[in-house]
Design a protein that fits this description.
The protein is 84% helix and 0% strand. It is mostly helical. It has one domain. α1 packs antiparallel against α2 and α1 crosses α3. The relative contact order is 0.11.
C-alpha cells in the first residue's frame, strides 16, 4: 500500500467514524429551521416532508453509529490498522450488492404499478 493509498483509506475511515455526527447535525439544523419558521409564524410548503426527513436522518444517525461501533470493535479484534481495515471493508462491500433491499423495493414497485394498471 502506497502512502497516498494509506492516506486516502485513513481519511475514508475518519469520514465513516464521523458520519453519525454529521447526519445528526443535519437533522438538528433542519429541525431548527422548522422551529424558527414556526416561531415566525411562517408556514413553509412541504413542512411535513421535512419533518419526515428529519426523523429519517435521526434514524440514520443511530443506525450508522451502531454500524461504526461494530466496525470499530471488529477492527480492534482483527488487529488491523485503520487503513487496512477500511480497505477490507471496501473490498467486501464491492463483492456485495450495494442495496440488499433494492430488489424487494423493485418488486413492491412492480406490484404497485401492476395494481395501478388494473385500476385503469
Amino acid at each position: 500500500m502506497t502512502d497516498d493509498e494509506r492516506a486516502l483509506l485513513e481519511h475514508r475511515w475518519a469520514v465513516r467514524v464521523n458520519l453519525p455526527t454529521d447526519v445528526m447535525h443535519a437533522a438538528q439544523l433542519a429541525r431548527r429551521v422548522l422551529e424558527v419558521a414556526a416561531y415566525a409564524r411562517l408556514e413553509l410548503p412541504g413542512q411535513d416532508a421535512v419533518v419526515q426527513a428529519v426523523e429519517t436522518l435521526e434514524g440514520w444517525a443511530v443506525a450508522i453509529d451502531q454500524r461504526v461501533k461494530a466496525d470499530r470493535a471488529q477492527r480492534v479484534l482483527s488487529g488491523m490498522d485503520e487503513a487496512r481495515f477500511q480497505r477490507e471493508l471496501e473490498r467486501v462491500g464491492l463483492q456485495q450488492p450495494h442495496d440488499a433491499a433494492e430488489p424487494e423495493q423493485s418488486e413492491a414497485s412492480a406490484d404497485h404499478d401492476h395494481e395501478q394498471g388494473d385500476r385503469a
